[in-house]
């Protein structure tokens, strides 16, 4: 027998497979109403909303079918050991879609017998060994890890193992299976039919190392791929970068040659690509060996924040003109075109037609575009061609507006941003077509509007009292603004007033957490792109227009609605955006049902620290970003701390490697200091938490258990209870610092206005220790002792912190910076 591709021992996962093409087909099931379990009590993370028609149909099909082994499929790709211990094909589908993929490998054992594996999956799995069905496990539960033990008969001479992995995709779908060896043996794994080629190991090494140079690529910079070790062979690399909008425009689709011995490869100039945080798809080829990899790439043509001249009205007009020139082919751009009098622009028709198609197919997130389409219809309907007007009327009277109306789609109704947009769409559509019968509900438009009014009042009751479960989210504040700005402009007077007041609160929170043009801070929901590339988020232009400095970009989800509206943020909040020299802006308040968050902010002109002290310690972090640091000197000068939720640094799970927390910590913040306590149980795959520290605008100094970052006059120390490991290779090279162990703690100390040497001496004198399993203690020279209890929270000199009495409304103080800070 040939040399094995890899060998696995007890506890190892089987990660070498030949793969068929993905089979995908629309599978909606029979229309039916859905559950609404949240009762306007919004939480961060997955909501158990019951079983949608597509999943009911899947279970029914799985119970009655007989699956036949197929071996005639072509090998489309290989799944090889590398960045993920799971065999994972996670993806996003806007419509209910059944997915299937065949996988094949060969296993040789020390002797002929049954071997035990723990099988994890979030879909359904069939396993054949040497042509005989050996395992079947079909929970088909949505995004919930299910597991069982399977016993596979493996021969010493080698056995062919074929897996059929399936899932029922409802929008974000974590589709994977994992086979973990339980026996204390060594098994050899082969892929005899696969064209691995002699160079596969070299390509795998390149793919695990690859990243672009720097945190961000400017217009005059080169987009350069960087590798840690010189490759011994010449490699061809195909790079592709395409738009994520429905236009599917391709900005880079080219093959390049990496010579033997090289560690860098230039693809193009930053100015050749549009601004944005892009997914860069790479294929590495040498001989008959191929490996695929996707990585993130931030492109910001100018890192200097732009001063937007004039008053708010002038800045709004600038934003509209920018959207006209650079906006994505989405409904917001059509609004900008109509609001600036460009009713004959040829982009309007394809944008509206794509919006209508999304609604007709009931794609997930179609509510986000339905609302700005209603804005365009109400304010500019008479300027639209007759055929479009007729189709708009038909589409809005056939759309599904809530879970009580029967449907078999995968639209998500249950988060606070979706609920708002659906209710706004129902209200305005009902008012626009009051005498028409809305087919899905059977109600007339006037009845729809009345029902939407009741629902919107319930939504406002909840959010006004509880705050937002998606606090500070650079991804979802712009979605909230879709509904809120439209209501403030076009809604009935009483609801318009509530919408305007909530906009005031959100803009206050944005002002508090914006530093040097970049909205930042702890977030209820975050993705990698919101954390790594703040100026490129859809929220950043809101700060630029509202406060006069920052970046405009191609995002048009709701900015054109702000720019075209009469709404004005409170003028008083501008003082929070850029504190005067020597001043500190601090804030404490609750957000989210529960409450989900107790937010703390410490902000000076040069640095800000923001935390969530109310996170459910030990719980699942989904997309909760609990600690954030932002420096004023560079738009990418950002740092944070989290426990990774997956293996792959470029992964897209929720939580991912950098966004969210696999296990939430206990957090406490007092003024310029935060304490963080991680408890990682045996079930956690990754036994470390880690710091992300950008290189742009920051210097790094690591010594033992302490990392000190300096950005301009801003300083921060990360002091851990154990030694810190600097990652020297791969995507984390130079930006990642890990603290290992099932239990460990951190102190984050912020300062400004003192020398690096003086700050370093001060931090060295601070003592961070555990006193028992539940107590993390920080002792500081000439300062309060801080004690973080796992259950009780933070005590200051053994006195518990008082809670904010303002509830969800920020409790704000402006004070003078103290010397020791």
Report on the structure:
The protein is of the alpha+beta class and 821 residues long. It has four domains: 6-190, Sandwich (Jelly Rolls); 200-299, Immunoglobulins (Immunoglobulin-like, Sandwich); 306-402 and 413-567; 579-816. The strands form ten sheets. Strands 1, 2, 3, 4, 6, 8, 9, 11 and 13 form a nine-stranded antiparallel sheet that branches. It has a nine-stranded antiparallel sheet with strand order 38-39-34-31-30-29-28-27-46, with no helix packed on it. It is globular and about 75 Å long. It starts with 5 loop residues before the first strand and ends in a 5-residue tail after the last strand. The model has no long low-confidence stretch (mean pLDDT 94).
List the helices and strands and how they pair.
Blueprint: E1 6-8, E2 17-19, E3 23-26, H1 53-64, E4 77-79, E5 87-88, E6 91-108, E7 113-121, E8 124-129, E9 132-137, E10 146-154, E11 159-173, E12 176-181, E13 187-190, H2 200-209, E14 211-212, E15 222-226, E16 235-242, E17 250-258, E18 264-269, E19 276-286, E20 289-299, E21 306-307, H3 312-326, H4 331-339, H5 348-360, H6 366-380, H7 386-398, H8 416-432, E22 437-438, E23 443-444, H9 445-466, H10 477-490, H11 493-513, E24 514-515, E25 518-519, H12 528-532, H13 540-547, E26 549-550, H14 559-564, H15 574-577, E27 583-591, E28 597-603, E29 607-612, E30 627-631, E31 638-642, E32 666-670, E33 673-679, E34 688-693, E35 699-703, E36 706-711, E37 714-720, E38 724-726, E39 736-740, E40 743-752, H16 756-765, E41 767-770, E42 775-779, E43 786-789, E44 793-796, E45 799-800, E46 811-816
Antiparallel strand pairs: 1-13, 2-4, 2-6, 3-6, 5-12, 6-11, 6-13, 7-10, 7-12, 8-9, 8-11, 14-15, 15-18, 16-17, 16-19, 19-20, 21-26, 22-23, 24-25, 27-28, 27-46, 28-29, 29-30, 30-31, 31-34, 32-33, 33-40, 34-39, 35-36, 36-37, 37-40, 38-39, 41-42, 42-43, 43-44, 44-45
Helix pairs in contact: 3-4, 3-13, 4-5, 4-6, 5-6, 5-7, 6-8, 6-10, 8-9, 8-10, 9-11, 10-11
């Amino acid at each position: 027998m040939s040399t094995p591709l890899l060998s696995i021992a007890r506890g190892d996962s089987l990660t070498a497979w030949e793969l068929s093409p993905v089979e995908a087909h629309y599978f909606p099931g029979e229309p039916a109403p859905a559950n609404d379990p949240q009762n306007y009590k919004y939480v961060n993370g997955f909501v158990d909303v019951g079983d949608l028609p597509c999943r009911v149909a899947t279970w029914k099909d799985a119970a009655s079918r007989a699956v036949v082994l197929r071996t005639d499929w072509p090998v489309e790709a290989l799944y090889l050991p590398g960045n993920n211990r799971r065999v994972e094909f996670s993806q996003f589908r806007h419509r209910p879609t059944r997915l299937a993929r065949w996988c094949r490998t060969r296993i040789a054992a020390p002797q002929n017998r049954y071997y035990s594996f723990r099988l994890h999956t979030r879909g359904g799995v069939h396993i054949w060994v040497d042509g005989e069905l050996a395992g079947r496990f079909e929970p088909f539960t949505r995004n919930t890890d299910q597991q069982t033990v399977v016993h596979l008969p493996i021969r010493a001479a080698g056995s062919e193992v074929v897996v059929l992995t399936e899932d029922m995709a409802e929008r974000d779908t974590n589709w994977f299976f994992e086979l973990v060896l339980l026996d204390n043996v060594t098994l050899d794994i082969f892929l005899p039919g696969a064209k691995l080629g002699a160079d596969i190991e070299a390509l795998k090494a390149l793919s695990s190392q690859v990243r672009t140079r720097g945190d961000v690529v400017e217009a005059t910079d080169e987009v350069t791929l960087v590798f840690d070790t010189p490759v011994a062979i010449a490699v061809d690399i195909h790079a592709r970068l395409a738009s994520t909008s429905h236009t599917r425009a391709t900005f880079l689709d080219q093959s390049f040659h990496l010579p033997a011995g090289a560690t860098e490869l230039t693809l193009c100039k930053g100015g050749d690509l549009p601004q944005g945080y892009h997914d860069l798809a790479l294929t590495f080829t040498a001989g008959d060996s191929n490996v695929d990899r996707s990585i993130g790439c931030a492109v910001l043509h100018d890192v200097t924040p732009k001063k937007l001249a004039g008053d708010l009205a002038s800045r709004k007009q600038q934003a509209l003109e920018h959207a006209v020139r650079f906006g994505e082919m989405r409904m917001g751009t059509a609004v900008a075109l109509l609001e600036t009098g460009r009713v004959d622009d040829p982009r309007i028709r394809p944008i509206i037609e794509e919006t209508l198609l999304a609604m007709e197919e009931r794609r997930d997130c179609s509510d986000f575009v339905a609302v700005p389409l209603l804005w365009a219809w109400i304010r500019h309907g008479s300027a639209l061609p007759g055929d479009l007007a007729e189709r708009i009327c038909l589409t809005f009277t056939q759309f599904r507006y809530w879970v009580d109306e029967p449907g078999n789609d995968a639209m998500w109704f249950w988060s606070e941003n979706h609920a708002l947009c659906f209710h706004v769409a129902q209200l305005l559509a009902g008012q626009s077509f009051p005498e028409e019968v809305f087919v899905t509900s059977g109600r007339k438009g006037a009845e729809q509007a009345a029902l939407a009014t009741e629902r919107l009042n319930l939504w406002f009751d909840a959010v006004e009292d509880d705050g937002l479960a998606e606090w500070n989210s650079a991804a979802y504040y712009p979605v909230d603004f879709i509904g809120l700005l439209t209501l403030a402009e076009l809604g009935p007077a009483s609801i318009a007033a509530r919408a305007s007041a909530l906009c005031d609160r959100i803009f206050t929170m944005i002002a508090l957490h914006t530093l040097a043009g970049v909205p930042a801070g702890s977030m209820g929901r975050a993705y990698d792109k919101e954390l790594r590339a703040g100026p490129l988020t859809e929220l950043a232009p809101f700060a630029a227009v509202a406060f006069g400095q920052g970046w405009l970009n191609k995002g048009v989800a709701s900015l054109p609605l702000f720019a075209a509206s009469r709404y004005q943020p409170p003028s008083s909040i501008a003082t929070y955006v850029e504190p005067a020299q020597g001043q500190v802006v601090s804030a404490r308040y609750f957000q989210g049902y529960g409450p989900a968050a107790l937010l703390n902010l410490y902000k000076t002109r040069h640095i800000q620290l923001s935390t969530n002290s109310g996170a459910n310690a030990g719980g699942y972090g989904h997309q909760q970003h609990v600690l954030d640091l932002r420096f004023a000197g560079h738009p990418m000068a950002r740092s944070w701390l989290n426990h990774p939720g997956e293996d792959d640094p470029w992964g897209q799970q929720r939580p991912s490697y950098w966004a969210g927390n696999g296990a939430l910590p206990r957090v406490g913040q007092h003024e310029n200091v935060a304490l963080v306590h991680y408890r990682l149980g045996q079930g956690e795959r990754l036994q470390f938490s880690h710091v992300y520290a950008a290189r742009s605008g920051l210097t790094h100094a690591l010594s033992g258990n302490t990392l000190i970052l300096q950005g301009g006059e801003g300083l921060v120390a990360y002091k851990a209870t154990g030694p810190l490991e600097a990652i020297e290779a791969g995507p984390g090279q130079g930006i990642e610092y890990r603290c290992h162990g099932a239990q460990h703690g951190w102190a984050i100390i912020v300062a400004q206005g003192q020398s690096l040497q003086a700050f370093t001496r001060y931090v060295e004198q601070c003592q961070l220790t555990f006193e028992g399993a539940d107590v993390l203690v920080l002792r500081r020279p000439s300062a309060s002792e801080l004690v973080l209890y796992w259950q009780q929270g933070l005590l200051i000199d053994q006195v518990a912190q008082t809670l904010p009495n303002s509830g969800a409304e920020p409790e704000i103080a402006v004070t003078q910076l103290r010397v020791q800070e």
